[in-house]
Each structure stands twice: as structure tokens, then as C-alpha cells.
């Protein structure tokens, strides 16, 4: 086992529907009110500015909804969603659920001295809230680092994985993901890779060649 294990979330640790249905449905009606109520927050203001620049118009909520409909991993959208989800978890409106094999595997790896980190398109704030409020309790003590498209870069580019390796201070890293393109990028950066083929998930029947493939974590 590598010194570090870095894990994707959606489709790897948790069902895609947890994000595309449960979390998206929670965030969608709250985006407009959140922006209105937190407009003075520098993080929100910067996200709104980015949305207008990327969308090319000033209808921020429409742009956000359009990106959600297309499941586009746009950074300001992920930032705003993360803030809303963070509050939702804190209030008890949301509780994160994982595939049955995930929590036992995380605890075993951690107990064996393997360092764990997350690399997801969801914001770091959203990730931390996700792992803090789960059906298995607070899992954040198991994790050393969180990476997203803001502090690391796009998940399908090798440069992002090289940047993470610099932060971790190690080249002995294994990356688990259900998306072959992400695994290709990590492998190009010199990482070990493992494809996670979950039955019923969007990439469950994908071709993970040349990456070793598992159907559950162990």
C-alpha cells in the first residue's frame, strides 16, 4: 500500500445520486436567496463575479442552474454549492451516506498508517461538511488533506496531480476514482491508480484499461 491514498467522492465513495439528486435538489432553490443574503461575503461576491464573467451575462442564478442541469464542474458554482451544503449539514438537513465498504476501508487504511486525502470537484468546504456529518459520524479525523479544482486544478489534467504531490510531499500515492480520464491524468503524473467500478453508477461499465480495477474498497 502506498504512503498516501487519494480518493474521489462521487461514484467512488458515495453514489452519484447523492450529489446529482439529493445535494443538487437541496442547493438549487437556495442559490438565489443565499447570494442575496450573503452578498457582502467576499467569497460569495467573488463567486458571483466569476459567474458573470464565465456566463457572459448578469443572470447569475440562471447561469448556475444551467450549469447544474448540465452537471458542469464550474468553480464558482461549486463554491456556492459548498457553502449551502455546509449549512445544510450543520443544521441536520443533510447527512452523507457512503457505499457499505467505504468507511471500513478508510478506518483500516488509517489504522494501518496510510495517510488519506480527498480530490473532488466539490469545494473543500463542501467536502469537509460531507465527511463531518455522515451516517457513520464525523469522519474528518481520518483525512489529512482536501483538494478541489480551486487549490489543485482540473481533475483530468496531470498538472493537478503533480501539484497535489508537491503539497503531500510524496510521490508514493495511489488514486482511486470511477472516472478513467482522471486515472489517466494521475498516472501521467506518476501516481499509482485504481479504477472503482460501482454497479449502477455512470462509469460502472467503463473501460479502465490499463488501470487495476476493483468493485469495492478493501
From TrEMBL:
<dbReference type="GO" id="GO:0043715">
    <property type="term" value="F:2,3-diketo-5-methylthiopentyl-1-phosphate enolase activity"/>
</dbReference>
<keyword id="KW-0378">Hydrolase</keyword>
<keyword id="KW-0486">Methionine biosynthesis</keyword>
<dbReference type="GO" id="GO:0043874">
    <property type="term" value="F:acireductone synthase activity"/>
</dbReference>
<dbReference type="GO" id="GO:0000287">
    <property type="term" value="F:magnesium ion binding"/>
</dbReference>
<keyword id="KW-0460">Magnesium</keyword>
<protein>
    <recommendedName>
        <fullName>Enolase-phosphatase E1</fullName>
        <ecNumber>3.1.3.77</ecNumber>
    </recommendedName>
</protein>
<dbReference type="InterPro" id="IPR023943">
    <property type="entry name" value="Enolase-ppase_E1"/>
</dbReference>
<comment type="pathway">
    <text>Amino-acid biosynthesis; L-methionine biosynthesis via salvage pathway; L-methionine from S-methyl-5-thio-alpha-D-ribose 1-phosphate: step 4/6.</text>
</comment>
<dbReference type="GO" id="GO:0043716">
    <property type="term" value="F:2-hydroxy-3-keto-5-methylthiopentenyl-1-phosphate phosphatase activity"/>
</dbReference>
<dbReference type="InterPro" id="IPR036412">
    <property type="entry name" value="HAD-like_sf"/>
</dbReference>
<dbReference type="InterPro" id="IPR023214">
    <property type="entry name" value="HAD_sf"/>
</dbReference>
<comment type="pathway">
    <text>Amino-acid biosynthesis; L-methionine biosynthesis via salvage pathway; L-methionine from S-methyl-5-thio-alpha-D-ribose 1-phosphate: step 3/6.</text>
</comment>
<dbReference type="GO" id="GO:0019509">
    <property type="term" value="P:L-methionine salvage from methylthioadenosine"/>
</dbReference>
<keyword id="KW-0479">Metal-binding</keyword>
<comment type="function">
    <text>Bifunctional enzyme that catalyzes the enolization of 2,3-diketo-5-methylthiopentyl-1-phosphate (DK-MTP-1-P) into the intermediate 2-hydroxy-3-keto-5-methylthiopentenyl-1-phosphate (HK-MTPenyl-1-P), which is then dephosphorylated to form the acireductone 1,2-dihydroxy-3-keto-5-methylthiopentene (DHK-MTPene).</text>
</comment>
<dbReference type="Pfam" id="PF00702">
    <property type="entry name" value="Hydrolase"/>
</dbReference>
<comment type="subunit">
    <text>Monomer.</text>
</comment>
<comment type="similarity">
    <text>Belongs to the HAD-like hydrolase superfamily. MasA/MtnC family.</text>
</comment>
<keyword id="KW-0028">Amino-acid biosynthesis</keyword>
